[in-house]
Amino acid sequence: MKKPIIKLKNISFSYEKRRILNSLNLEIYEGDKIGLIGSNGSGKTTLLHIIMGLLKPQEGTVEIFGKVRTKERDFIEVRQKIGFLFQDSDNQLFCPTVKEDIAFGPLNLGKTKEEAMQIVKETCKILGLEGFEDRVTYKLSGGEKRLVALATVIAMKPLCFLLDEPSAGLDENTNDRILSYLKSNTKTFIVVSHDKDFLTKAADKIFLLKDGQIRY
Amino acid sequence: MHLEEFSEGNSFLHRADPRVKILIFAIFSVLCAVASGIKTPTLFLLYSFILLLIARLKIKSLIARLLIANFFIAFIWFFIPLTYPGNSYVTLGSMKISHEGLRYALSITIKCNAIIIATITLLSTSSIFSIAHAMLHLRVPKKLVTIFFLFYRYITVIHEEYLKIKKAIALRGFVPKTNLNTYKTYAYIVGGMLIKSYERAEEIYKAMLCRGFKGYFPLFEHFYIRKSDIIFGVISISIFILIGVKS
Question: How far apart, in whole angstroms, are the C-alpha atoms of residue A206 and residue A37?
Fold first, then answer.
């Protein structure tokens, strides 16, 4: 039997007194293309942050790539192998130019400057961002920012993607570019969205997050 | 907001190695700050003017910056001559303007302007990113450099945030007046920006962790020191020594 990449067991999480996740269970296997829906404030983003180790659950265990992850150190490997696209791209882009931002991840993974530059080129090509390398990140438009943010995630060549509302506020053309990338170049991902149309096109299975638990 | 207007240019100082420029600037500003009297600071100011000639900056924006700085120095001219102990130069009723006080204020003014001009000509002629890189090369603690760089990178974002809030309140018919409601609104703007920048900082840190951030930025471009950089450094330091010996 295949082992799950991500396995969440009895996860509970509360902000102050408000319980967001209530002994939630989730298993993601290699090759799963999952869409996650749920009303505003139902804890979709919280769930993704817990997988990445950015938030620590009050109860339950997080098991990723077959290992239980509790401490900050355990999540370093997780973050190298799972790519996370933030809801707000402004937060994800912090280097002065697109080139440096895309290269930031690969350089942190120990790639040389030449290798990083090669990755920057390739990623820009995949997403149709040729000629963007020297643009200033905070002067890009909303859609361009989202694509560059996606590029910074792709550049780390993750095994699995977590995408937090990648389609929100984008035009059809940009949406299609993200969609076609997801369809042709990725194997495993969880994508959070309110856009039913986008989800049915991108995902094989759709889960609903309600009352702090996953409904299949 | 355009913070790097002086970094665009092609003079010798724009092309010089930022490491050399930072070193010269550090030595210059310490020596200039501890210099006393009128003569030595004037010589340092002269050196700054020479740098200005080399850098060929936009005069208009340069003067604008100097005016802002000198606005604060104007306060020194208000208080020091009136309060500094010494022989009176002019007596106006019960107020005495002291001779030493005037000299002291003049000395401070010259020193300030010398250092400001040196900052603009030496540091502002490089982009912030290369200054941050140069600081790393000069073994400045990585954490400090990262804070410095992120501060710079996000000040524009916070400024944009401020403009957004300003637009939002203007759209709802806000006109500043001298009343409690206006002060309250301004307090909300400051408070809102504080919270927003804190939350944004948290998010950015998370995003950086997700991409393998280990506490510093990897260096992307390296510097190459040229002969002219070394000559510039040697000449500058000899000028400083000469000024020191002369006075």
Answer: 7
Distance between B120 CA and the closest CA of chain A, angstroms: 21
In angstroms, the Cα distances linking A108 to A80, A103, B104, B211 are: 9, 9, 52, 7
Taking every pair of Cα atoms in chain A, the longest distance, rounded to a whole number of angstroms, is 50
Q: Å from B138 to nearest chain A CA?
A: 21
**CATH architecture of residue range(s) A6-215:** 3-Layer(aba) Sandwich (3.40)
Contact A108 B220 (CB under 8 A): no
ipTM: 0.71
Tens digits of per-residue pLDDT, B174-225?
A: 778 888 878 888 888 888 888 888 888 888 888 888 888 877 777 666 777 8
The dihedrals phi and psi of A205, each to the nearest 5 degrees, come to -125, 145
Both structure tokens of A182 = 């997801």
Question: Distance (Å, rounded) from C-alpha B101 to C-alpha A200?
Answer: 79
Rg of chain A in Å (alpha carbons): 17
pTM: 0.69
At A178-206, the pLDDT tens digits run 899 998 888 899 999 988 888 998 899 99
